[in-house]
Amino acid sequence: MTNRILLYDLTAGRGEDERNWQVNAKTIIHEAAHQSAFNTGVHSRYAMPPRWVAEGLGTMFEARGVWDSRNHPSQHDRVNKYRMLAFKRYTASRRQKGALPPFVSSDRGFYSDADGAYAEAWALTFFLVETRPRQYMQYLQRTASLPNFSVYRSPERLQDFTEIFGSDFELLESHYVRFMNELN
Q1: Which residue from 40, 64, 87, 170 has the fewest beta carbons nearer than 10 Å?
Q2: Using alpha carbons only, what angle is made at residue 114 by residues 40 and 140, rounded to the nearest 5 degrees?
């Protein structure tokens, strides 16, 4: 109602711990990305996008090369190192082959394995932005144009995703996971 965000300072105002300040900075950028996306129509305020879409953008902007591309122009700078490592751990230990369709069609992963879901949201968003930017933009436009106060059910989510990115999830997932594994 107020279009404000409230954040907690891990350093308790002391600023003495550089790692905690880096976490603070990434949190501020992440939440500002959400606020900007909803304020500018990238996401609709009245029909929530899939959670992976919102969190994928938020986590993508945590990387310096995304929010400061003039001074950090390389792909390496756009990689969110923390999320990349989390995704690689998730892939090595608990991510199942064929996980992409349930992930894009449901928010359940955010409730059962938040670390894995945030890692996957970042990884999928980064992959699509880097390799299929026009399709990704079209997908954002689709999710932002949902009818106000509607519920975006799993079948519709899956249908919208396949209409834009194709229905061969096995091939897409293969390209996606290989792309992520080649990042360092």
Answers
A1: 40
A2: 25
